[in-house]
Specification:
The protein is mainly alpha-helical. The chain has four domains: 104 residues, no CATH class; 167 residues, no CATH class; 88 residues, no CATH class; 34 residues, no CATH class. It is built from 23 helices and five strands. It has a three-stranded antiparallel beta sheet. A hairpin with a 7-residue loop joins strand 4 and strand 5. Helix 13 runs antiparallel to helix 14. The two termini are 57 Å apart. The N terminus is likely disordered.
């Protein structure tokens, strides 16, 4: 028996059958419960290729030997199905449970062995590296090492219960004691805001219109009509005809791009006066007047969300602090649509979308402790400051301007210099006019440097990023909390540039040089 990769292997190559063979390494049907392997056979080419074995049925009253393969167990399955139906049903249940466990833990053993072998060869490492405690510790929690790393060393990790992989996240029993835990700190783990907003426009919206038979029927009908047009756009002859008629090529949805359906719908509506001619040219069904009406209402409903998604995916001047204002803007615009009631098909659905937005981003709208970093980031953005606070009065009535300031100061004071002189700030008329303590005794107010700096910052009419140079503590807070990006699209674009740089003649670049070239390409410097 040959076992590969020491502690990691669960696959066995049969040149002979040892008495001490591990049953867990065999197919389920040959593990001794249903069939017990007696010997290895290699009388035919098939048996040689498939590791042929002869096994005794453990259910037959008299010994019944079946020949088959370890890799292809159809002979054993056929015997079990025909002669022992109850045991066959039991086997299927057990096999299904085993498959679920395998899917839970992800990578198949053969694929894992191949990847480890590639790692050893590519890095010119000794085979003994697979027995090193640090290497073993990477895999002993079944793929949860990265999540656990954020849990142990990150600022804070928040994830849903259905994302936990068993109980391995809470257990350190399998980690060798000799592995020293480094003194490191990872950033907080955030879910992609753009992806969550896209789910609101797709999954949540489709679930909402299922309760409205008329809107659901119109939506499905419009999708069929538009899909027929888009399918024609992918054909060379039809694409040329479309361009000759409209003067431009039509935009088509892309499953990997957010907002692609909205953009494609809007492009069709721009050509609304020529849609009948277009459908006739492409020999597809025309959109009726009611379907066009629904499409216009749908695009108007999705406009705030689509604009927000486009904004979140901006390459420049996009900060984490803008996420809260975007959420509030979408909600406010939808509430105005709901109050106006100008829709024919989607009047009731507007209110449902508002509720879905608040439900999906409940932690943000209620200023949950685990989402307060987003509010600190927003306050530190000169263009935002505390403009959003009044819009949260419905979902977070306890959060006043003073409470937001108090929360912000807890973080800003870490960057404030306690030895700095505040006399100039105390004499600043803006600050003097800002403070109003009523009948409060002066001794109870502690005007710390950070508090005075925040007051000056909030009263400063300059909304450019450059104004942060005048407020060192606010600037440091801004850098810390506005680091997370709001869309994974920015990172995905870098992978595209990496593919352009990593050509056939660029295979010997060092990691550092390659990274610099990718960043230069992404920033249009060369």
């Amino acid at each position: 028996m040959i076992t590969s990769f020491s502690n990691f292997s669960t696959s066995t190559t049969f040149s002979s059958v040892d008495d001490g063979a591990d049953d867990a390494q065999l197919p389920l049907i040959l593990n001794g419960k249903y069939f017990k392997i007696l010997k290895a056979v290699s009388d035919t080419i098939y048996q040689k290729a498939g590791h042929g074995v002869e096994a005794a049925c453990q259910i037959c009253p008299t010994q019944k030997n079946i020949r088959g393969s370890v890799k292809r167990t159809s002979n054993f399955l056929s015997h079990l199905k025909e002669m022992h139906r109850p045991e066959y049903e039991e086997f299927l249940v057990e096999k299904d449970q085993k498959s679920k466990r395998a899917r839970k833990y992800g990578l198949r053993q053969a694929d894992f062995d191949e990847k480890v072998l590639k790692f050893v060869v590519d890095t010119s490492s000794p085979l003994s590296i697979v027995d090193h405690p640090s290497f073993i510790a990477l895999f002993n929690d079944n793929g949860c090492s990265f999540v656990k790393a954020f849990k142990d060393f990150g600022v804070e990790v928040n994830y849903d219960a259905d994302e936990k992989d068993g109980e391995d996240l809470e257990s350190n029993e399998d980690i060798p004691q000799s592995v020293e835990v480094p003194d490191i700190s990872l950033t907080k783990k955030y879910r992609c805001p753009s992806h969550n907003l896209n789910l609101l426009a797709t999954t949540d919206y489709l679930n909402i219109i299922k309760s409205d038979a008329i809107a659901n029927e119109k939506h499905q009908s419009v999708m069929r009509r538009c899909s027929a047009v888009w399918n024609k756009c992918n054909r060379l002859k039809s694409a040329e005809s479309i361009k000759n008629l409209l003067g431009v090529t039509l935009k088509t949805p892309c499953p990997t791009r957010w907002n692609s359906h909205y953009d494609a719908f809007m492009h069709l509506l721009k050509c609304k006066n020529q849609l009948d001619d277009l459908c006739m040219l492409l020999e597809v069904a025309k959109l009726s007047s009611s379907e066009l009406q629904y499409l216009e209402e749908y695009c108007e409903l999705m406009e705030p969300l689509a604009t927000g998604l486009h904004f979140l995916q901006s390459d420049k001047s996009m900060f984490f602090g803008y996420f809260i204002p975007i959420l509030i803007t979408i909600k406010v615009k939808w509430q105005r649509m709901d109050a106006m009631g100008n829709f024919q098909f989607l009047n009731e659905r507007v209110r449902d979308m508002v509720n879905a937005l608040v439900r999906r981003f409940q932690d943000f709208f209620e200023v949950s402790p685990k989402c307060q970093d987003a509010f600190v980031a927003a306050i530190s953005c000169p263009a935002i400051k505390l403009k959003f606070s009044s819009a949260l009065s419905e979902t977070a009535p306890d959060w006043t301007d003073e409470k937001f300031k108090e929360m912000f100061l807890k973080h800003a004071e870490k960057f404030s210099d306690p030895t700095s002189s505040t006399s100039s700030a105390r004499n600043d008329p803006q600050v003097f006019n800002y403070f109003d303590y009523g009948e409060t005794e002066e001794e109870s107010i502690e005007a710390t440097p950070a508090c005075i700096e925040l007051s000056r910052y909030l009263n400063d009419g300059d909304e450019t990023i450059e104004c942060l140079n005048r407020y060192p503590a606010i600037k440091s807070t801004f850098f810390k909390f506005n680091t997370p990006i709001l869309s994974s699209a920015l990172v995905e674009r870098l992978f595209g540039y990496a593919g352009l740089v990593n050509g056939k003649r660029s295979q010997n670049f060092s990691d550092g040089h390659f990274e610099k070239l990718v960043l230069l390409k992404a920033n249009n410097i060369f």
